[in-house]
Design brief:
CATH topology: Rossmann fold
Shape: globular
Largest sheet: 7 strands, mixed
Number of strands: 13
Low-confidence stretches: 162-167
Number of domains: 1
CATH class: Alpha Beta
Number of helices: 11
Distance between the termini: 43 Å
Radius of gyration: 18 Å
Order of helices and strands: HHEEHHEHEHEEEEEHEHHEHHEE
CATH superfamily: Vaccinia Virus protein VP39
CATH architecture: 3-Layer(aba) Sandwich
Mean pLDDT: 87
Strand order of the largest sheet: 5-4-3-10-11-13-12
Helix content: 40-55%
Length: about 280
């Protein structure tokens, strides 16, 4: 049933071409090709892993072949990171919301003034990895171990299993009561800024596995102020409704706040929106 639903989503959002691309990705990711490739490379090269985009070179820690694969592949988001790096100015304040191991944060901090990179990552293993990666690159990144959303409370985070605390996790805010979870602090971005715990952002990247509308609602005052000129947001159409959102309401929130929006990367059904002020 899950495969049938995925095929329907691919056809609905992108048509036959995206369906073919989706099949190729599935074969690559699930057929063992990717796993074999990166396992061999990890044994040969180990860590730290060096990566470069448009002349910006950085290093990442990798405690397992899977982490190595995630760093080397950059989650397929190399073009988005490249676009971000071309547009960042040293004085920009960058929010990496849903930072995971800090890929965007590490690259961005190479372009920004010291202290202008802020990472939000609720999972403790991932937050530790961001700090380790920052140290590898002699970068100062402000790391907040919280989940940004539209209310202040304690929430549950559903995370992938890992036998080692050194290994970073993939995760999302919990929707399934039967899933293994950890408790995390949830708070509105506006409230953090009002409390002067963080500086207001001028550029934001959001990747929170379906909770992106909640993040934007919690930052409504900030994005309506005109200080934040650019927002990169990965949209998960198949997950938004589980958090009370929708593609239409997310887009309306941005447009009503004065942003022009366009799709800059399509992976069906997920895609990246770029929102810029008029």
């Amino acid at each position: 049933m899950k495969i049938a639903n995925r095929v329907h989503q691919l056809l609905q959002h992108g048509g036959p071409v995206d369906l073919l691309k989706g099949i190729c990705r599935f074969v690559y990711w699930q057929g063992g090709i990717r796993t074999t490739r990166y396992s061999i490379e990890y044994k040969l090269y180990g860590e730290p892993v060096s990566e470069a985009i448009d002349g910006v070179s950085v290093y990442f820690a990798a405690a397992s072949p899977n982490e190595y694969a995630r760093v080397r592949s950059l989650y397929g988001e190399r073009p988005i990171i490249a676009q971000l790096l071309r547009e960042l100015e040293p004085e920009d304040v960058f929010y990496d919301i849903g930072a995971n191991i800090g890929i965007y944060s590490i690259f961005a901090s190479q372009k920004l003034n010291t202290g202008n990179t802020v990472a939000f990552e609720p999972h403790p293993a991932n937050a530790d990895r961001i700090q380790q990666n920052a140290d590898l690159n002699d970068n100062k990144i402000s790391i907040h171990q919280v989940a940004l959303t539209n209310e202040t409370r304690t929430g549950e985070l559903s995370a992938s299993n890992s036998a080692s605390k050194r290994i970073s996790r993939t995760h999302s805010l919990a929707q399934d009561e039967d899933s293994e979870t950890i408790s995390v602090e949830m708070i509105e971005g506006d409230k953090l800024i009002e409390q002067k715990n963080v500086r207001p952002p001028s550029v934001i990247k959001i990747d929170v596995e379906g909770a992106e509308q909640l993040v934007l609602e919690g930052l409504r005052s900030t994005i309506e102020s005109g200080e934040c000129h650019t927002i990169y947001c990965e949209v998960h159409p198949d997950r938004l409704s589980g958090f009370g959102g929708s593609e239409q309401s997310l887009r309306e929130l941005l447009q009503n706040s004065g942003y022009n929006i366009r799709v800059i990367e399509q992976r069906s059904p997920e895609y990246f929106l770029k929102a810029t002020l008029d």
